[in-house]
Amino acid sequence: MSHIRGRFQKAMDRLVARYTSSLPSDWRLYRYDIAGSIAHARMLAKQGIISEKDAEVIVQGLESIQEEIEQGRFDFRTELEDIHMAIEARLMEKVGEVGGKLHTARSRNDQVALDLRLFAKEAINQTLLKLRELQRALVSLAEANKDVVIPGYTHLQPAQPVLLAHHLLAYFQMLQRDIERFKDCLKRTDVLPLGSGALAGVGYGVDREFLARELGFGRASQNSLDAVSDRDFVLEYEAAASLCMMHLSRLAEEIILWSSAEFDFVELDEAYATASSIMPQKRNPDVAELARGRTGRVYGRLMALLATMKALPLAYNRDLQEDKEGFFDTVDTLLATLEVFAGMVATLKVKRENARRAAERGYLLATDLADYLVRKGEAFRTAHDIVARLVSYAAGKGKPLHELSITEYREFSPLFSEDVRSITLESSLAARDVVGGTAPKQVARALVRAKRISHARP
Amino acid sequence: MSHIRGRFQKAMDRLVARYTSSLPSDWRLYRYDIAGSIAHARMLAKQGIISEKDAEVIVQGLESIQEEIEQGRFDFRTELEDIHMAIEARLMEKVGEVGGKLHTARSRNDQVALDLRLFAKEAINQTLLKLRELQRALVSLAEANKDVVIPGYTHLQPAQPVLLAHHLLAYFQMLQRDIERFKDCLKRTDVLPLGSGALAGVGYGVDREFLARELGFGRASQNSLDAVSDRDFVLEYEAAASLCMMHLSRLAEEIILWSSAEFDFVELDEAYATASSIMPQKRNPDVAELARGRTGRVYGRLMALLATMKALPLAYNRDLQEDKEGFFDTVDTLLATLEVFAGMVATLKVKRENARRAAERGYLLATDLADYLVRKGEAFRTAHDIVARLVSYAAGKGKPLHELSITEYREFSPLFSEDVRSITLESSLAARDVVGGTAPKQVARALVRAKRISHARP
Amino acid sequence: MSHIRGRFQKAMDRLVARYTSSLPSDWRLYRYDIAGSIAHARMLAKQGIISEKDAEVIVQGLESIQEEIEQGRFDFRTELEDIHMAIEARLMEKVGEVGGKLHTARSRNDQVALDLRLFAKEAINQTLLKLRELQRALVSLAEANKDVVIPGYTHLQPAQPVLLAHHLLAYFQMLQRDIERFKDCLKRTDVLPLGSGALAGVGYGVDREFLARELGFGRASQNSLDAVSDRDFVLEYEAAASLCMMHLSRLAEEIILWSSAEFDFVELDEAYATASSIMPQKRNPDVAELARGRTGRVYGRLMALLATMKALPLAYNRDLQEDKEGFFDTVDTLLATLEVFAGMVATLKVKRENARRAAERGYLLATDLADYLVRKGEAFRTAHDIVARLVSYAAGKGKPLHELSITEYREFSPLFSEDVRSITLESSLAARDVVGGTAPKQVARALVRAKRISHARP
Amino acid sequence: MSHIRGRFQKAMDRLVARYTSSLPSDWRLYRYDIAGSIAHARMLAKQGIISEKDAEVIVQGLESIQEEIEQGRFDFRTELEDIHMAIEARLMEKVGEVGGKLHTARSRNDQVALDLRLFAKEAINQTLLKLRELQRALVSLAEANKDVVIPGYTHLQPAQPVLLAHHLLAYFQMLQRDIERFKDCLKRTDVLPLGSGALAGVGYGVDREFLARELGFGRASQNSLDAVSDRDFVLEYEAAASLCMMHLSRLAEEIILWSSAEFDFVELDEAYATASSIMPQKRNPDVAELARGRTGRVYGRLMALLATMKALPLAYNRDLQEDKEGFFDTVDTLLATLEVFAGMVATLKVKRENARRAAERGYLLATDLADYLVRKGEAFRTAHDIVARLVSYAAGKGKPLHELSITEYREFSPLFSEDVRSITLESSLAARDVVGGTAPKQVARALVRAKRISHARP
After folding, report:
1. How many CA atoms lie within 13 A of A57 on its CB side?
2. In whole angstroms, what is the distance from residue B297 CA to residue B319 CA?
């Protein structure tokens, strides 16, 4: 896959150059490319493949190129195919012929795989940190609203009262799984491909363990053909990102619903909403909407690379160049979304009275009534039927349950007595006293655990 | 969806601004935005909603902004949300308060829909032209190699001989369907949304027919809620582009196969291939590989927008902002791919001897042998069985059919006689003398038709 | 691609047979397969390729097989590869050797393409009818609730009042585009592939025009290689179905929202909802939820076939067998969803008072207030600023606009006078008197048009 | 989400029943449903929530239902919504009222989550076993062809010689990553949801640890809202399956290429290929083609569920019912594909002479020539340039390198001497003596490792 012109006389025309160049997106790998080349140069010298002096010249050249790039003085010439060629060409300009020695025992195929893995490792670590931040924001919002009751929904219909904190901790759990997934992905990313050459392994006595150590990899790849053509780590990141964005899209949806005039459970901080020019009291949940919308984008990038990789014969094919742009975009989108969500969640104002009022409407205590009858000896399904008829009766009268008289209750079952009055939102919550349940006691414990986790290194 | 700060005191922080801005991608709508605004201003004046003088000031202001942009003098401030706000803000700077009148009887919701439709119409027209170009390249390659025979494959196994021209015209047909699809898409894109306001229609006596005429639309939208939230035209383009890229990926695959050392049917022009640094005689089909790889990218963009649009309530939601980047990328990718393919196909060198040799190997005339027996009175399935046994016999001997003696033939069926020798590649081709068949006569006619079509306006 | 065993001695084991058989899904093509074979037999006789008598025997055999299948007496043996082989094998059993003649001048490749196109044409026609049904349901719901006002939303925030009928007609428009798209797809489906043989065209004097007429096709395919490997029509159906499901998912989402306790704008008929066992007054919008969920399914099928078709070399490859199951599932899902939606929409009860109350909340007349000022001479953007401040003031006081005194109004602009009281929900609606706007006059006209269209043949 | 009719009088019509029923696909969960119910009944008794005797009656009832199902005597009535209702209804028939007690402290929401997790765990374990089988098949094919040389390709152009065994071990590595991924997925699947109730946790003193132990789960879920709405484990399986199918599609592509007349490196066993009816010597790689095609299918199922889950508010929504069919299909497809691949790979015949001949063509030793010059002191890039010119010269003459005279060599560099003759396919292979390289020594070691791994429990 080396691409320097040989007997090709005709210049590849601008159109084709533009079509094939990845420089517009892969320039951002420069740091990894230079770090990889420096380690490679040192290894070559250590193994006596090039001289220590040559290595030194190369390393200094590379360091000064990094400086040029970071100071904006580097000329990214679009006729160059990619960041590797751009840096290589500049190195030759700076240090002359000796620069050519850097490519001993290396090919662009293992080089590009290396750069992308270095980038991916950093991306995963960043992602883990941002996931933790959002976990902390959820915990802090939950703690600040420990006793807020909201309706728990199924089918978007109010079903049973739950603590808002419990609801928020559901997202904490999702993010925890995301963290585990990204960590698992990291294990498979943390593999040095350098030494695989173009496809068959290099024909020099390189020290791959040294390279792995220098570049912070846990281990070296075991098969050169696989190493140059494997993009599983990119796909696995994109799949984990898709799941994570899916979780965020669910939270986004709820924030949008809760911010609506009809639900009105929360108020977005103005930094995370947009006002209408003419109805300035309104807060449009633009950030949440964009996050929801960008879920599709991340899905699309995953699907794109899956389709691209399908049925490619070994080893390297130029199709693989398509891995980068989608990967970068996925990382950028996910990191930015996690970041804005942390801020949006942390600053969310909860309208506890509205939420409670909603939980009091409907017949959210129906299940508790049935449990009450079961405890008094009624069979489960029969208890359900009794309560169903009772609720129908009340709904027909347009009355909440607590406005029914005991006589009315007893028309449905003689097991009802005065103590049915003790069934309240609070008793309902307290009754779900099981691990993972919404009982305040359980939620308090879950919050302690979540807080501890959210402050631990991911 | 107007977003000017009202009572919001806190500045939306940089992070959120970056997260929500679409300026990095939608700046390229500037031409459509200005054209739309000019037509709107003229309509407002015509209807007496603003004065002729105000309209003139606005139009001149807009024209000078266009000049600024095209001369690279326009300051795209990233804190502005999108291209519409950027132009609006600049207009206010240039012409003062009167600039504000431009937004009478218009909302950003119908404005952004308008801009995107204007862009889409131009994109479709460009696409149609590029499709035609590639059709012409196919026709010219076919004409230049009118009598080249290649093996026709099923399951990537040689099956029957076909003319290369016939094979190329299969792609012509695919592109013709693509053209029809894009034209159908154009019908549904060619609809003016302006006048729909934020969502309910505007409260002024606007003249939508005038606007449609000025801006070259075939008709005006019939429902304001639909008009501001409809992105079908983008999705339809992306779906048509996905099919078209699928076609191109098939051609790319074949070019890659045919360029391989094992097939060796064609040689890519060096402008459309890349040489290895060390095996300069090799031509890597990078352009074809990239096109094949980018098929996934275009699929992904379609999937992204489908996912984004799913389950959005009416009317405008900020999620819709995600329509643009993927659309632009799809258009850019498709146009560039069509363009490089036209060049790559036009300059392809066919190695006719290699192709013919491949068509002579195997037993590609087996079907013709069976047809021979059928014509002599054998039942179709029996004829097949006879030939199957004959071919097995020949393969066992390692002989091509024409090396078998008539005696050997007649061991399988007494119907064989000396005239079986007249079955050749040429007779096989000639026999497929049915509309759509590979007989030279049919292909010649098809080429004439294709040539005519490829020179007609799409 | 004919697959009868030749010198293969070993029986393909059950596992592989199961892996490769498409009979479990393609049995439902039997009607098309038989119709195609009958037409083919008649054509062969007409052209003198087989005798009239043989044709008659074959046709009768096929007709009796159709009867067997429809009466459940047909033995679908799973060791047969597909429906074509199953019918062929049965025909041989029934009519003996003569059955083999049916396959003269035909291959399974053009046969399977034919069957699928016949199925697709019927599927499209069914789809068009169901789309019309749903359009009629929308029109009838709109007519029955002609004067119901609801809040029009952007960002799920109430923005401006609209007529429910106007809102429903937005969906009418979407479905109208769907109809156009399926009709366009029909044009490209309505092409006879028979005569293309395995890939190169058949070597007999077939009459493709006759076949096209017999089988009701508009025209015959123009390139045999394309005809046997083209699945564009399936993909195009799936893409159109994806857009249509996207539209339905938006309607589903709104029905779910509107059925929620918080919105409470509509009540689902009990036939289209599910009750909770214990809160029987609740109606879970299961049908709408499933439709929303199945949108993903239809998207997935599109993506699947796009991925499958990518980079396949010409002509037939066995990968193409994967076209059917997803296509059938897409057709079934879409038809069923359209059908249940027609019923669900037609029986929806609108809670007009709740909807109106919601439209009265918030400050949905703000835009009308600004337009009022503009009409009195204020510049558009200034008018907006004044109203924004006024709304802020009112919101601060917790008052709706109509509870402000004229004096309070005039503190924001001297242009306000007593006639500001004439701005009401009704005046706001009436003001959007533009084609596509929500003014009752416009909506009435749109309803008339929609009704007429919905009763016309698609 | 319980759905027994309450005050709903009207019967849900057949259409809707069919639209909403999941019984046609979820009947296969019966074993998990019954196992879950038995454990639940035992736990209820252990906790004194129901009597031991009632539990016994229930358990016996469930066991006899399982028998009925497995003996084909169970009547799956399609008017029942799902497998849970079907079993519940049958239990009531068999044991009467007491059956109703089974549902104490349980909801269909946690029940369905439980069943699906039990199924998923078994599916993962099956997948791991099948992955191991295929690994063993690869190892055994590699061992049997230890010294076979093939061209290693980049861009489908021959690049450097590699051992076939090395090439096959690249797939071993991919499958090893697949195994790791499925094992990671198992960790997150191995979580008991029972006890979460409808959404808020159950209001009884259940023993979730007991349930987890009984049912073989590693731990219990920590949040009830999350537990009933989490389908990450399905998505994660589908993502891992997509990657695995992608790997298999690459192997399928290579088998298809290698089986082509042009490559002709391998011969498929007739059990895994299909013959043409008329060219019986041909073996169509149908199994490989179908596997390649079904890659799209698995991708599509992933995309479907991602789209379905997007933006769903907590907790349970009926959309989630869509999880099952795609999941079952993915598991079935992947397991079957792994199984047929194991057989296909194990029986593949390698045509070693053809492969070697292909490796001798081209100039696959060019890199070795350059390395030779570098070892003699030439700078890396210069050495490349020299060899490039040399190869051009040879190609121009139409000669392989070993036919050039030393004089001709020395015209390009004086460093060439007689020992250049020692550069052969074998020396080239041997030179890649680095971990992961294709040197026979390295490959032998890799094979030993691979064999050991492939026989260990996954």
Report:
1. 17
2. 21
Closest of C118, C25, C5, C114 to residue C325, by C-alpha: C25
Active site residue A454: no
* pLDDT band per the 50, 70, 90 thresholds, residue D342: very high
Residue C152 has φ and ψ, to the nearest 5°, of -85, 135
Q: Helices in D191-322 by DSSP H: which ranges?
A: 208-215, 224-229, 232-259, 286-309
Q: For residue D290, what is the nearest residue in chain C, using CA coordinates?
A: C319
Touching C (3+ Cβ pairs <8 A), the chains are A, B, D
Give the C-alpha separation, B166 to C226, whole Å.
10
Interchain pair A314, D170: CB under 8 A: yes
If you average pLDDT over every residue of chain A, what do you get?
Answer: 93
| Contacts C157 to A, Cβ<8 Å | 259-261, 276, 282-284
Domains parsed from chain B with CATH numbers: 14-104 (1.10.275.10), 109-148+163-357 (1.20.200.10), 359-454 (1.10.40.30)
> Is C406 in CB contact (< 8 Å) with chain B?
no
| D191: phi then psi, degrees, rounded to nearest 5 | -130, 125
CA C86 to chain centre: 32
Give start and end residues of each alpha helix (H) in A260-405: 286-309, 323-346, 352-360, 366-375, 380-397
Report d(CA D275, CA B385) in Å as an integer. Answer: 13
Give A14's pLDDT tier (boundaries 50, 70, 90): confident
Give the CB-side neighbour count of residue C442, counting CA atoms within 13 A.
25
CB A329 within 8 A of CB B332: no
**What's the confidence (pLDDT) of residue D9?**
39
Tens-digit pLDDT profile for residues C336-353 = 999 999 999 999 999 999
* Secondary structure (3-state) at C63: helix
Give the integer Cα–Cα distance in Å for B90 and B74: 9
User: Does D3 have pLDDT greater than 60?
Assistant: no
Q: Which of C98, C177, C320, C380 to mutate to test the interface with B (most CBs of B within 10 A)?
A: C380
Q: Do C284 and D308 touch (CB under 8 A)?
A: no
ipTM summary value: 0.95
What band does A4 get if pLDDT is binned at 50, 70 and 90?
very low
Mean pLDDT of A430-449: 97
State the pLDDT confidence band at D304, using cuts at 50, 70 and 90: very high
- CA torsion angle D54 D56 D61 D62 (round to 10): 110
Counted residue by residue, chain C has a size of 458
A379: which chain D residues are within 8 Å (Cβ-Cβ)? 97-98, 100-101
As given in the structure block, the two tokens for residue B187 are: 């019908």
pLDDT-derived band of residue D417, with 50, 70 and 90 as boundaries? Answer: very high
Confidence class for position A9, pLDDT limits 50, 70, 90: very low
